[in-house]
UniProtKB/TrEMBL annotation:
Bias kind Basic and acidic residues: ranges: 11-25
Ligand binding (Ca(2+)): 392, 394, 442, 447
Keyword terms of this UniProt record: Acyltransferase, Calcium, Metal-binding, Transferase
Cofactors named for this entry: Ca(2+)
Biased composition (Polar residues): 1-10
SUPFAM superfamilies cross-referenced by the UniProt entry: Cysteine proteinases, E set domains, Transglutaminase, two C-terminal domains
Enzyme active site: 271, 329, 352
Protein name according to UniProt: protein-glutamine gamma-glutamyltransferase
PROSITE patterns named among the record's database cross-references: TRANSGLUTAMINASES
Cofactor note: Binds 1 Ca(2+) ion per subunit.
Amino acid sequence: VAATQPSTNWHLKENGRDHHTSKFSSKELIVRRGQAFIVTFNGTEQPEQNFTFIAETGPQPSKLAKTQATFGISSTVSKESWNAVLQSTSSNSVSISISSPPNAVIGRYKLSVQSTSSGSSSPATLGTFVLLFNPWSSGDDVFMPNKAECDEYVLEEFGIIFAGNKNHINSFGWNFGQFQGDILNICLSMLDRSLNYRQDPATDVSHRNDPKYLGRVLSAMVNANDDHGVLLGNWSGNYDGGKSPSSWTGSGEILQNWKKSGFKPVRYGQCWVFAAVLTTVLRCLGIPTRTITNFSSAHDADGNLRVDEFYDASGNHLDRTADSIWNFHVWNESWFSRSDLGPSYSGWQVLDATPQEESGGIYQCGPASRNAIKEGDVDLDYDCPFVFAEVNADCMYWNYDYATGKKTLIFSESTVIGQFISTKAVGRDDRVDVTNDYKYEEGSTKERDIFKKARKKLGLEDKFDPTAPTPQEIDQKPDISGKFKVAGPLEVGKDLNLILILANLQSDVKNVHVNMTAWSTVYTRRPVHEIWKDSISVTLSPKEEKQFPIKMAYTEYQQQLTTDNMIQVTALCHVEGGIQVLVQRDITLDNPAINIQVLGEAKVNKEVDVEVTFTNPIDMEVMGCVLQVEGNDLLRGILEIDIPPLKASETSSTKFKLIPFETGPKHLLVNFTCDKFADIKTFKMVNVID
């Protein structure tokens, strides 16, 4: 006979508080592994000593795979297994404290109880609960001893992502929103849609106790390649048929769109979008995670720790290799121990969901131990050579002649890649530089030794590479030097003024022919549209320096700009009787400012007015203006407001109401777009009081 269905009290409030899960807005119990939770149930007539509990997860629960546990009530608690301890009883109800081992499989469990004395009765289901990783518990692989770091890297729903280029770092806010609405369920269904789960569900679920495993699987699932994952990447500069990557302000909309569409990939993502979504998913599951921005980031496609760039005689940057140097690239670090590698490789691990190169036949990357990267231990799992190259590769710049197919080395650099590696500070909205955690100081002997060690481990030291420049080519010394200097504001809507400075390094006269180009690019430095070109012939007296002003009018570049607001300017100098000299600069233009004002005090469940103002800085009308607003605990979903066209120098003021529903510091994120300016972003901290 089946037992009557007991009614269960999951003590959501107390358990949520004890397990740092009260930010989830769920009616289901959500707890962390390796820690006790209380459950009370009634409708049972049996003496409690006779109870056996069953906790099971996945499609084929089994004791062997550790996806099923049966346990009775005991007075002693063993850390290694599931336990139940009697808390209290009354005439018709029993309160039990249940704890799971610190290495339990995470996910949704069914909890049942069977009374042994009633003979053949089948177990009665008490209901379901979700078990997560526990960075607050010292036995957990993801244990993080510093509480402020747990707050930031697991519980914080607001982030700051750094972008721009090494000369000009800018940043924008992001709403991770890991505790909102249905996000936890979407994260769990992401695991059930992975290739590993489709191939062998029982084995996949049995590995879900391991943050290394889940991090790797999720780095594949966040991109759409191979597995119909969450986001489709697009770096073309043309984003028809989807949302431009720079228009998103949070992960929630992306994850919800993925689910709503029946799990069709959301269009479109670029690196920071992949990284932000992976941050949301991992924080949601309880793995401490942050986003990292690497400036001048190498994409070494052929694994030789060298990035080759090609230019034609006119100075155009050619798109002829899979290698590239991105203005910036964003990836993730997650915190967990590496029992597979040993304690010195535990701590921060690099994961990267941006589909760049295949690993094990699919687009996934990591976890690569950050300590292994710093020490050049590129033979360790997973994908260390690729990550090592991102921050350490040498660069070779070549001139390519289409007519003959001949390439000539212009120059090489070993200190350019991997600069100003950045992440958000703990508990503050500031940038922290973590470059020294990835490598020894550029130019130091230790840094070169590590580079040689990595080359040796990859078998690059002993192998002849026909594509590499000769030592003679590398040692060539140029006769002149050149650089671009910025002379004026770098703002969308203003003319761009630069100065090309050329200096003769020799004590005889030099004749130089200079071919200059400017192209709009995506942030990966992929050229999209030519903006301008010019050529000049120059005679430089011995040791002379000359300056050549360059002006690109706003009207010249406005049509060609991508949403990244980036322009690459190049001057290829052909020196009579000497080697060519390449002068280049990547320029990021700032959008005009937008302002948020909260008019009055923000109180829980009380209306408060917010005003957003924008002044059109250019002398033509801007149209198609849309304001997009989001913010956890301040408003539900995303607010979209159409704004009428703005004449030259006109200011628009847009007011809307918020009704905050939680106290504490909250962040309001705003994105403003029109036909002349793409995705002007800002955020405002709003302190909500009772």
